[in-house]
């Protein structure tokens, strides 16, 4: 379980101008993350624009990513949806070779009840070939996984090992920490809340900003996990403006702009997502230069 302490990065999926997957850009991104000292990586989470990829494209990205990483850091696959049967079928077809866990976003659009969310994850836990993380991100899904539901799943489904909590609700994070089983992992899904959530007892972050600033971000997280908030706090403050800019016009448009300025990959996205405007892009570039 310790392999998922620290900084995980939800990687973007680089695209060429024609919209095809830029595998060389993905290779550069993977190596940039590992050289930057991140603790683990996430392939095809929501930041990876997974909703716009076909099943065959996802298989290609997962296979390529595992081959390039080659066991150098732990690896999580993002695999979720709002049709439980379809997600189960995806789990059955998923090749777990090279992967350590599954991150599954809570069902979106349908707005299920808490019992529906519980039953959804219970089925996934039974079918998953790997340990499973709940991913709660109400801003994207339109529904919240209540703390009580997370705790119920943590206690009753041994294959569910943690939650990526991106509700932005500090009280909810407190409630999970108070009542969770000892080994159950609480991971922040909000870059800007990383320091306070670790201070509360969280195990780290699955980051967007880490795509562009892996070394700075992972250094800050390590200081927090060591309890050295005296050094971590000034570093965290240095990062706050950059993090804010990354989300100014939506994710992953902002971080892809940063990666283009770094020469890692282009800022191309798949519709309906669209690159950030010039003003935001230049502000991101300026702040990135201040950081690196």
Automatic annotation (TrEMBL):
Q: Which Gene3D superfamilies does this one have?
A: Aldolase class I
Kindly indicate whether the keyword Cytoplasm belongs to this entry.
Answer: yes
Establish whether keyword Translocase is in the entry.
no
Q: Where is this site: Part of a proton relay during catalysis?
A: 46, 109
Pathway info? Amino-acid biosynthesis; L-lysine biosynthesis via DAP pathway; (S)-tetrahydrodipicolinate from L-aspartate: step 3/4
Q: Into which EC class is this enzyme placed?
A: lyase
**InterPro entries attached to this UniProt entry:** Aldolase_TIM, DapA, DapA-like, Schiff_base-form_aldolases_AS
Instruction: Tell me the compartments it is located in.
Output: Cytoplasm
Give the top-rank taxon of the lineage listed in the UniProt record for this protein. Bacteria
- Catalytic activity entry: L-aspartate 4-semialdehyde + pyruvate = (2S,4S)-4-hydroxy-2,3,4,5-tetrahydrodipicolinate + H2O + H(+)
Keywords, ordered alphabetically: Amino-acid biosynthesis, Cytoplasm, Diaminopimelate biosynthesis, Lyase, Lysine biosynthesis, Schiff base
Mind listing the GO molecular function terms for this protein? Answer: 4-hydroxy-tetrahydrodipicolinate synthase activity
The EC number(s) attached to this protein equal 4.3.3.7
Task: Name the residues annotated as catalytic in the UniProt entry.
Answer: 135 (proton donor/acceptor), 164 (schiff-base intermediate with substrate)
* The name this protein goes by in its record: 4-hydroxy-tetrahydrodipicolinate synthase
Organism expressing this protein natively? Arcticibacter svalbardensis MN12-7
Species lineage = Bacteria, Pseudomonadati, Bacteroidota, Sphingobacteriia, Sphingobacteriales
**Gene symbol of the encoding locus:** dapA
């Amino acid at each position: 379980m310790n392999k998922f302490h620290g900084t995980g990065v939800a990687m973007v999926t680089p695209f060429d101008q024609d919209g095809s997957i830029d595998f060389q850009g993905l290779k550069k991104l993977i190596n940039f993350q590992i050289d930057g000292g991140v603790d683990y990586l996430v392939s095809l989470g929501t930041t990876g624009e997974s909703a716009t990829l076909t099943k065959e494209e996802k298989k290609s990205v997962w296979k390529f990513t595992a081959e390039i990483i080659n066991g150098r850091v732990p690896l999580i696959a993002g695999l979720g949806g709002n049709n439980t049967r379809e997600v189960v079928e995806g789990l059955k077809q998923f090749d777990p070779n090279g992967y350590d866990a599954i991150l599954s976003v809570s069902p979106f659009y349908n707005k299920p009840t808490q019992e529906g969310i519980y039953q959804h994850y219970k089925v996934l836990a039974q079918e998953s070939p790997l340990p499973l993380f709940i991913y709660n991100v109400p801003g994207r899904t339109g529904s919240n996984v209540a703390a009580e539901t997370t705790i119920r799943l943590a206690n009753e489904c041994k294959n569910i090992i943690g939650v990526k909590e991106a509700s932005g609700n500090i009280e909810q994070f407190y409630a999970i920490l108070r009542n969770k089983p000892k080994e159950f992992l609480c991971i922040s899904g909000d870059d800007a809340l990383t320091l306070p959530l670790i201070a509360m007892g969280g195990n780290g972050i699955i980051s967007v900003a880490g795509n562009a600033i892996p070394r700075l971000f992972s250094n800050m997280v390590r200081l927090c996990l060591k309890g050295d908030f005296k050094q971590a706090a000034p570093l965290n403050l240095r990062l706050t403006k950059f993090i804010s800019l990354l989300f100014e016009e939506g994710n992953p448009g902002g971080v892809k702009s940063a990666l283009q300025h770094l020469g890692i990959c282009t800022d191309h996205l798949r519709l309906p997502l669209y690159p950030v405007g010039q003003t935001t892009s230049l502000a991101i570039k300026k702040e990135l230069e201040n950081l690196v």
